[in-house]
Each structure stands twice: as C-alpha cells, then as structure tokens.
C-alpha cells in the first residue's frame, strides 16, 4: 500500500558548523527509549577489534554491511587483519579481496590511505592518547574519510562520546518534524550531543537503533508506519496512517 510520506528530504546537506540545529530534548530521549524498548540492545559495532571497526567503517561507505562482512571475510582468508598486512598487498590484490564491498578499486586505495595514516601515527595505542577533537581532525585529514566515517571510528573504535549522523538519522528526524533534512552535519551532531551528553554506551546504542529502525520500519520507500512504535508522535506517520480508536 502506498504511503503519503512527504516530509523526508533526501539531501545530505552541507557539512559546515555554521547552522545551529535545535532539537526537542524530550523527543530525542523518547525516541531512544522507544526504540530500545522495541528492538532491544543491538550490541554494535559488529567487529572483534578496534582496527577491524575502522576497516569496516571505511568499507561500509555506500554499501550494505553484509557486503562488508563478505569483503572482510575474503580479506581475512588472505592476510591477518592488520594495517601492515593490508599495506603489504598491492592495490590490485587488495581491490580483488574487497570486491564484494562495491567500489572496490576506490575502497582499496582508501583503505591503503587509512592504513598508511594508522601506521605513521603509531597505531591504536598512540591514536588512543590523542584528545577527541584533534583525533577527529586527523582522521578527517585522511583522504576518503568524511565526518560520518570519522565519527564511526571515534565512537566504536575509540569509545569517544560523539553522535554519528547518517542518512537514517536525517530521514527519521525529518519525518518526526525535528529536522528539515538539509542541515549541516556538524550542526546536527552538536545538537544531539548537547541533548545526550557524554554517555558513550548510549551513543553507541542510539546509532545502532536508528539503523535498525530505518531498515525495519522507517524505510525510504514504503515505511511501515501502521505498525511503527513511533507513529503516535510522528507527523509523517500520522499523515499517512491516522490513529483510530483501536490504536
Ligand atoms: S511512523 Fe515510524 S515508520 Fe512512519 S515515518 Fe514515522 S517514524 Fe517512520
């Protein structure tokens, strides 16, 4: 059945910090508690080591996680998952291993760039000693690492209190009437962090729950509003499926 959702805007928007974004703190917290009640803890990030988190963050750009898992599996069959071993492969061999992740030539080069940075910086222990804003700047200086990837790494590999903004965040909070959808990345990140504070476990869980909800219910096309646990306070969902006496 078609759904008359019209509030979502797909534009990623700029990355600047010039725009101040205001979110309703109660709404941000209630979405979290609601999704946690609906789906339970997600236990992210699905990786064995911090380095594997970072590799996954590079590979997951523009592809589904299942494809990343296949690529990581192929890579692990050929080498151990360390920056030095990845750099020991020539770029063609690396690209071949990463084939399931899509854009494999580009991702092979990006992964090599990241591994070069990682080794030159002294590895995990050295990077872990760098203060969050400076570490973020250093990650962003690596070619191919944008704000979302850097924040994935900061949150899930370095346990830093950052909120990851992705297309799912924009879609959901646009439909909830909290965002217009074209705000800058930094403005959205700052607004969520101001509400949620430095609770790393919660920030990890929140992002994972948003991804789960976007895949299971708040999909780009044909969202499942009629059974969504957020519908009673979602303008877009109520437009599409008004509450009835039975709700
Ligand atoms: S009711 Fe739920 S699925 Fe529908 S737009 Fe709102 S949040 Fe998304």
Automatic annotation (TrEMBL):
Keyword Iron-sulfur: yes
An MF annotation (GO) of this entry: catalytic activity
Keyword terms of this UniProt record: 4Fe-4S, Iron, Iron-sulfur, Metal-binding
Record SMART domains: ENDO3c
GO biological processes: base-excision repair
Name of the protein: HhH-GPD family protein
Segments forming domain HhH-GPD: 59-216
CDD domains: ENDO3c
The organism of origin for this protein: Thiorhodococcus drewsii AZ1
PANTHER family assigned to the protein according to its UniProt record, in alphabetical order: A/G-SPECIFIC ADENINE GLYCOSYLASE/ENDONUCLEASE III (PTHR10359), DNA REPAIR GLYCOSYLASE MJ1434-RELATED (PTHR10359:SF19)
């Amino acid at each position: 059945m078609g759904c008359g959702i019209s509030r979502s805007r797909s534009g990623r928007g700029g990355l600047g910090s010039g725009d101040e974004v205001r979110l309703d703190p109660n709404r941000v917290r209630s979405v979290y508690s609601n999704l946690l009640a609906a789906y339970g803890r997600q236990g992210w990030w699905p990786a064995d080591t911090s380095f594997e988190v970072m590799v996954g963050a590079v590979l997951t750009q523009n592809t589904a996680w299942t494809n990343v898992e296949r690529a990581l599996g192929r890579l692990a069959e050929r080498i151990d998952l360390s920056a030095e071993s990845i750099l020991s492969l020539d770029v063609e061999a690396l690209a071949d291993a990463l084939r399931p992740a899509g854009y494999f030539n580009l991702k092979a080069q990006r992964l090599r760039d990241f591994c070069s940075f990682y080794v030159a910086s002294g590895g995990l222990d050295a990077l872990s000693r760098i203060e969050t804003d400076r570490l973020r700047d250093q990650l962003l200086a690596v070619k191919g690492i944008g704000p979302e990837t850097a924040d994935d790494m900061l949150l899930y590999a370095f346990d830093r209190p950052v909120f990851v903004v992705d297309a799912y965040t924009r879609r959901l909070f646009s439909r909830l009437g909290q965002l217009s959808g074209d705000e800058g990345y930094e403005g959205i990140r700052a607004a969520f962090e101001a509400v949620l504070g430095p609770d790393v476990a919660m920030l990890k869980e929140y992002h994972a729950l948003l991804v789960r909800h976007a895949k299971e219910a708040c999909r780009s096309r044909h969202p499942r509003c009629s059974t969504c646990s957020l519908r009673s306070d979602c303008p877009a969902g109520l437009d599409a499926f008004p509450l009835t006496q039975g709700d």
